[in-house]
């Protein structure tokens, strides 16, 4: 928009001169969204004057509807803009900087914004040359005019912009301010939003291409295609971002947009002497007073180490080749794959183009070599060893191949062409433009000196002894010695250190990326449990070998670094893991697994909050509040394993109940059929004289089972049961059989019973003494109840739970009274016990028989009982088992959460729980007695669940 100054015209009439307000000016301000009252204040006239001019020019008083969408669609668009973008002053002060978040792929963002927060330009380029930044700056000044001052960093890419500003305003007015990025806050704040809403998307896409090995940042072909496909997409995204930013309302500016604030600033200072404003209002204005050179002014500090060089692409396509690429690949095509498909297509086309070029250049090279061989046979060097003129002509008329591209004839200097001419003992060598010449052709006998030969010049001796020595060792393949020689040079040492720092920074960036996340990112409860230092160190060795080598060399005293050195009880693996975690967390706060582990150790040891605060400042732990939140997260699923055990038992019991119900519906009297079941393999063997049976259709059987089970019928479970039963039958129906058949099926299912578990509980007593006792503050005696769940190691699925071993009426006296054989067996069982006592108490026997004494009496479960018990901690209940009502609450909680039960919801909405399996409750003698009392008190309950009969107390002493 063109900004006009306010001028007056004299009509040679009485009264004030008439103000000249153009129609274009009013329409331009109105198009920016300014109200008429705001326009009058900006122009310094009354609202009535603006209204008269508006009516005279025929400008409508209200905005015309420029979008045919409904209010709901507008609300949706506004909602989307607020979700995507954040809550986002005149030309006196500008900010210029570069964005290096995508520098890995040689993409740089050049940007400048003004004090009004207007983004003047955002552009992505493949380089950061000063000419590129100046071109973007000059393009922006055509729209937003020149700022009075520009603030930049120390980078040399801003040199041309600074020179342009100095040529325009002169050094005396100090138009260019350089300094650290902390003083360039407006543009640094802008980079945050650019990174979040633009750069992050493309950064993730590029890392994804690297992860699937479609992109190599060191491959020139991949980089060229990456720039070709994604540079237009990136610039399009930046243009949308700039338009959105410049037109979003600012809450701190009463809802005005940055572009409105920028425009209003010119009119507010239209009558001032500010150079930046007067230049816009009057293009012919020149402030000669401020232009000049201050001889006594300070000289700017020369910065020599603030240049980030972005190398140019080595691939250069001709006009025809580039046209072929654009005709077959559109970089802005919507491939519904974030540009990945377009990238792959363009890459294939470029490879085809380069292969065709390579075939052509190889033909040209073969032609030159043929000409050269013919020249060697007819031309010899002169007496001074100079190259004959015809060889020079051949050089000028030939082409070389460099990086896959044809060069001009005058640039032939790539390949070394060695022509040997027999003329006494002399040799003639045509070298490349820069090549090393050893005075001896024998590799084993090192030369006494090293010379550098440039085409058509005399050889230059390498004077520096270190360089000469290093070159000799490189030629002979002794790279380690060459590195040791160059390491003594401070320049080389500093360059090598910078290179190592860059590589370590790149490795750490890859470790912190989301493309292939590190185990340090998994701070979930399972991640904290599974984390170990060995796995972390192995990850460092694989993903960041240089970073790991530095840490290992710092932690271990071994020269080869191949083994961990345990000194003073310290494991270097743990030290490396903790050090790497602290360093990576300083770079990326999400790499916090080790910090959480250390914080949990502090919490377990009862550390105070000050310890957490100090650990946060050191960067090794998380805060106290975060630690408590993580502990709560870890404790959410504390009983998940026990609930899984419970679920398996419930499923098995319900499955068995369905089998028994099918048995009731299908069984016929044994007189009608004759079959027998092998008790071990549970296979059904019909006899030869089996009577014919009547089949029951599956649908009919389902209706019968559903009628018998009522509200306890489960459709999904019934389908599983019928599939299991059909394995013993044929056809689409289940034949009516006798009880032996179904008993075999049920016994087969019982053998697959999962292991049971038992609850072990005991009381927890604590006595807290009050320092100053009173009637309101007595000493506290706390009684709580803690429980653990222990899984049974032996599954006794063959034992019955609902039948006694034998009938009491048929029990004979000799079966329970000791007999002579029982006494003999008892004495035999005492032998291992006596042997242990004798060997332990008599030293002579201990020396001779300690290896043969039986410490463990073997039995069929010996191997199983040697395994570690699977134990899971349960909650700590704030209940006192000494009180009968609270002991009832403890048993009721066990029944509600840990006892395998079947909950049935009836049609009237009522619920009922049926015990499927009983569990043992172990404890001391007092716990056992206190558990039986609530069961006796609930003996009048309607169901076994209400009578608390699902628990069988036992003594663990």
TrEMBL record:
Q: Which PROSITE patterns match?
A: INTEGRASE (PS50994)
- Could you tell me which InterPro entries the record lists for this protein? DUF6589, Integrase_cat-core, Integrase_dom_put, RNaseH-like_sf, RNaseH_sf
GO MF terms here are: nucleic acid binding
Taxonomic source organism = Paramuricea clavata
The protein's name: Uncharacterized protein
Choose any GO biological process term that the UniProt entry carries and state it.
Answer: DNA integration
* UniProt xrefs under Pfam families: DUF6589, rva_4
